[in-house]
Amino acid sequence: xxxxxxxxxxxxxxxxxxxxxxxxxxxxxxxxxxxxxxxxxxxxxxxxxxxxxxxxxxxxxxxxxxxxxxxxxxxxxxxxxxxxxxxxxxxxxxxxxxxxxxxxxxxxxxxxxxxxxxxxxxxxxxxxxxxxxxxxxxxxxxxxxxxxxxxxxxxxxxxxxxxxxxxxxxxxxxxxxxxxxxxxxxxxxxxxxxxxxxxxxxxxxxxxxxxxxxxxxxxxxxxxxxxxxxxxxxxxxxxxxxxxxxxxxxxxxxxxxxxxxxxxxxxxxxxxxxxxxxxxxxxxxxxxxxxxxxxxxxxxxxxxxxxxxxxxxxxxxxxxxxxxxxxxxxxxxxxxxxxxxxxxxxxxxxxxxxxxxxxxxxxxxxxxxxxxxxxxxxxxxxxxxxxxxxxxxxxxxxxxxxxxxxxxxxxxxxxxxxxxxxxxxxxxxxxxxxxxxxxxxxxxxxxxxxxxxxxxxxxxxxxxxxxxxxxxx
Length: 473
Ligand SMILES: [Zn+2]
Fold this sequence. Notes:
Layout: H1 15-31, E1 46-55, E2 61-70, E3 73-79, E4 89-93, E5 98-101, E6 103-108, H2 125-137, E7 140-145, H3 151-162, E8 170-173, E9 175-178, H4 186-199, E10 204-206, H5 210-222, E11 227-232, H6 244-256, E12 260-265, H7 271-277, E13 281-282, H8 293-301, E14 305-306, H9 311-315, H10 324-327, H11 332-337, H12 352-367, E15 371-372, H13 388-399, H14 404-411, H15 413-418, E16 435-438, E17 452-457, E18 460-461, H16 464-471
Helix pairs in contact: 2-16, 5-6, 13-14
This protein binds zinc ion.
């Protein structure tokens, strides 16, 4: 039976792939594509990461732990004293190091970034794989691309990744919906429309009547796409804002079809009515004066998630080109462009009043116990980098009031739950062995998520050095 796969999310339906996984790995080794194979392959079928601090992803921690991996899955996690290594188990001593679940980015736009240019002309299977591998390099196990991908091509790449054709973060995507010929910001819109013409595939669904809303949702359901991203934003007057009666019709029909709605909304004040309509979550927090405790409580009551998405503006002010963590994955010419300049400073200025406003608003989300999920909008504009920006966003979370542990939860188990990634986001038996080995403890300083010693995806060590060599060419 063919694998029935949802376009937008990978669900349990991927089991068939897992059964064939060993055969696929062997095949890949025979093919030996240089940038595509996993790195220093651990030869044993079973191995034990021993003597290591384990951050589970649910808020718990094992200071002197061990984790057993068999055939790509975690089969045991516990204190060292509780876990038997046994015969035929390769033991990897990780004393002094910390392991945590690989990260997940719940808001990005893959395919358009070309590093020397940005746009539809860069979108290709090869570029999608490059972006997914950048995520993997930075310790990510999955990324959700929010309503900007040509569906058939995105689906092919998603399936190829799941089948093990190349090691990378998993790829999730959505259909986009807005009034006809609208949605993304004006620059992005031009390129999304061009890409639809270029590929003959669908990205955006234009809706200006209830009937059209229902028909479009059914069309998306027939394609097995499990998430619709809606834009409710007039883009400063250059577009038309999706009307409430239309997003309600979209949400009602989506609920009938088991499809979730993720919203891009213009203002925090748009959130209550969108919650009423039944959206699952918000891809921009609009953290600030508009987002007070009352809306925060409504978010929790409706069980909606929020991607605060605060780093996009800040990166424009920072001299990120001199940051070694980013430089390691960019050609030198691109880093040079991003170095210190009139606009980009080593120590970016932050206006005190604005910072206090952000802290207060973010504090309301924390006080109301809202499900905060990591997302970056990476790739939506030029020079907003994949993976790297996720680590920056975690720093912002902590700067504005989260503990490092809360930030890690927001980047691992929360997004996994929200995106339907049932085997990611936790270091627990039965989960896929997708994890990051860190030299330093991120609970002491969240910036230590950058101290990546190695990345495991599907129980295999990623060849980060090989990928970096490829990225910096
Ligand atoms: Zn976006």
